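[step 3/7] fold_predict: job queued, chain A
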Amino acid sequence: MKTLSYLNFILAALFAACYCYQFVFLVVRLLRKRRTFQAQKLCRYAVLIAARNEAKVIGQLLDSVRGQDYPAELIDVYVVADNCTDETAKIAAAHGAVVFERKNREQVGKGYALNFLLSKLKNELPEKTYDGYFVFDADNLLDSHYVTEMNKVFSNGNKAVTSYRNTKNFGDNWITAGYGMYFLRESEYLNRPRDYLHTSCAVSGTGFLFADELLEDCGGWNYFLLTEDLEFSADLIARGEKIAYCGDAIIYDEQPRGFKQSIIQRSRWIKGYLQVVAKRGGALVKTMANTGNFGCYDMLMNTIPVVVLTVLGIVLNTVMFILGITQARQEMGIFFGSVLIGSINSYLLMYVMGAMTLATEWKRIHCSRAKKLKYSFTFPFFMFSFGIAMLVAVFGSTEWKPIKHTVALSIGDIGGDTRK
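[step 4/7] structure written:
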């Protein structure tokens, strides 16, 4: 059992070695102001929304797009109603979107839907030209200044920009709050320092903008893995492009409430991470070796090591537990002591991560003070549950499945301007 303690120590040391650079990110976030921009011009944009049976929420998103303080004549909205069996297409059209319906049961997923939508624009509406394309999910809501703020960053020559991802149902339960803090930390403690240090950020599923010329350079939208957003990010970084960050552009996202649904979603993310490394990892390593691009290293570290080391740790401790109760019961105290110490240290680390995020983003989180404090203590358990998702991703069967969205809030229901 002493061997177990040594092996757990080695795994912890490897984990720390892979992610110690994020301590620099932490210092930058706390001590440095984000970069600021002034708009160089008013660009023309297309909004792209892939929706599958989103009749309950898509109207609110489209209203929030229409409610932007950016010139309305410079924003066109396109929706692909992807294999829908409800009134998504009808509702989207009623709220002013141009709608294309897609029926394809073989090629399923957001990546295929976006490729279909962009192909429709290029082939059927060639007279429509845009400087850039926004990508949103149907359950999103946009702060009224969203496009104005994104345009400031984009118009200064940044070909791809990601935004501040907030949560519209943060206070529902410990799972939605866990997601909320996870994405807030990603926005402010990863993407913001990356942007300040002039390395590349990463797109996080929704709420991003990319240039038309970038689409042309990449040969169209050809990102079809389970995590098409990460594949897109990896491809850009391997090409030497940088994704910028706009912390004043706030998007609100709905998070799953149920534990089972959450595990299914996160196992898909993790399986997608592995797919991205398998397909794009070689290009990232090549670019890193040839140019010293830190963004490539950062991208690789945020995909493979966390999965491999976590799964190894879970499997190792499970095997040692079985051996202990069958062959060396007298040494089980060492086993439980090792697991207990590791668990306490991990909990404290995760709690500090969540508490710091909660403290700096307090005013932007829309739920009661009591819930914010309560969910700071449950955040570590949300992070620990990634271990279950990792096991499902590695050893189970994972495929793309739509997530049901039912939180039909308007941007007015959430609150006012929370820029800072």
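[step 5/7] annotate
The radius of gyration is 22 Å.
The chain has one domain: 1-400.
exit 0
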